[in-house]
Amino acid sequence: MTKEDEHSFVKLLEENQNIIHKVCRIYTNNYSAHNDLFQEITIQLWKAFPKFRGDAKFSTWMYRVGLNTAITLYRKSKKRIKTQEIDTIQFKLSAQEYDNTEEEQLKLMYQAIHQLNDIEKALVFLYLEDKNYKEISDTMGISEVNARVKMNRVKTKLKKILNP
């Protein structure tokens, strides 16, 4: 890789690094795991950058590499023994003037998302990123119709999880 390519990669990565953070937020439960996944996605992007042809937008390509990396690591982690992370246990003092309704709703939503399978998580993530079905289908490598059908099923599944 030339110095020019390296500079181009670093510039594009810096401009779009929030994509990686969002992928990490969907697939991890704590700060340490988030950082590990962020680093792994960055490494995979670096390795794959020479093959980036520019047929799609850099951000679309970045979503694809990031999601594929996260899904691969997520599947590997499913084979490990589950333990509870200490930082998921929170002790809070309640303050009457603080309304945490929105925070609690987001927490419930993320808990529900964590119950989805890896492909469903990717669909929800892209949907929440306001990607249209064409972009979702391009990123996931499925047809636009398939993306719509899968998303409708995921919405139904999330509703059942959130309202048993």
UniProtKB/TrEMBL annotation:
Domain RNA polymerase sigma factor 70 region 4 type per the UniProt entry, residue ranges: 108-158
Molecular-function annotations in GO? DNA binding; sigma factor activity
- What keyword terms does UniProt attach to this protein? Sigma factor, Transcription, Transcription regulation
Task: Tell me where in this chain the RNA polymerase sigma-70 region domain is found.
Answer: 12-79
Could you tell me which species this protein originates from? Spongiivirga citrea
Q: Which domain of life is it from?
A: Bacteria
InterPro entries for this protein = RNA_pol_sigma-70-like, RNA_pol_sigma-70_dom, RNA_pol_sigma70_r2, RNA_pol_sigma70_r4_t2, RNA_pol_sigma_r2, RNA_pol_sigma_r3/r4-like, WH-like_DNA-bd_sf
Q: Does the keyword Iron apply?
A: no
- What PANTHER family does its record include? RNA POLYMERASE ECF-TYPE SIGMA FACTO (PTHR43133), RNA POLYMERASE ECF-TYPE SIGMA FACTOR (PTHR43133:SF45)
GO biological process terms, semicolon-separated: DNA-templated transcription initiation
Read off the Pfam families from this record.
Sigma70_r2, Sigma70_r4_2
Q: What is this protein called?
A: Sigma-70 family RNA polymerase sigma factor
Gene3D superfamilies the UniProt entry points to: 1.10.1740.10, Winged helix-like DNA-binding domain superfamily/Winged helix DNA-binding domain
Q: Which family does it belong to?
A: Belongs to the sigma-70 factor family. ECF subfamily.
